[in-house]
Amino acid sequence: MKKFILITFIFFIFSCSNDENSNSIDSERLVGTWFLQNTTINGEEISTHDIEIEFTSSQRAFFTHYNLGSNGQDITENADYTINGNNIVFTWDDPEPGNETFTYEILELTSTMLKVKSYDAGDVVIEIYIK
């Protein structure tokens, strides 16, 4: 009887799922157009230009930075993206050398709000996007 309990206990321990990926992202919830609502750097709110990100179901992302160009023109950046756990990894179409990829850590994702964290020159950047 003790062997049966021991074997059952061992089976139970090894058959339990690993919760490391329990926070993985529902990619369908990410698909759509998101508008930057708020940005903080190291906890301090900053004003930024208007940014829009469109995520497609074919794992493409289209960033539009409104009125950011030297003559007020919009600037676009396009990338493939993959979801790895709670991270979105972007691989840019036309990267600057050394900046081929960029990663957002998803802190929260609902049907209407996307909160992400990234790092820029050692600073912690938190951005909130809304649909």
Question: How is this structure best described in words?
Answer:
The chain contains two helices and nine strands. With about 130 residues, the protein is mainly β. The chain is globular and about 40 Å long. The N and C termini lie far apart (about 60 Å).
Q: Descriptors for this entry?
A:
9 strands, eight-stranded antiparallel barrel, mainly beta, 2 helices
Question: What's the arrangement of secondary structure elements?
Answer:
Layout: H1 2-15, H2 27-30, E1 32-41, E2 44-46, E3 51-55, E4 60-65, E5 75-84, E6 87-92, E7 101-109, E8 113-120, E9 123-130
Antiparallel strand pairs: 1-2, 1-3, 1-9, 3-4, 4-5, 5-6, 6-7, 7-8, 8-9
Principal-axes geometry comes out as globular
Distance between the termini: 58 Å
The proportion of strand residues reads over 45%
Count the helices. How many? 2
Helix percentage range: 10-25%
Stretches where pLDDT falls below 50 for ≥5 residues? Answer: 1-22
Sequence of strands across the biggest β-sheet: 1-3-4-5-6-7-8-9
The string of secondary-structure elements, in order, is HHEEEEEEEEE
Structural class: mainly beta
Q: Can you give the mean pLDDT? A: 85
Number of strands: 9
Major beta-sheet overview: 8 strands, antiparallel, barrel
Q: Kindly provide the radius of gyration, computed on alpha-carbon positions and rounded to a whole number of angstroms.
A: 20 Å
Please identify the oligomeric state.
single chain
Summarize this structure briefly.
The protein is 14% helix and 50% strand. The longest helix has 14 residues, at 2-15. 11% of the residues are buried.
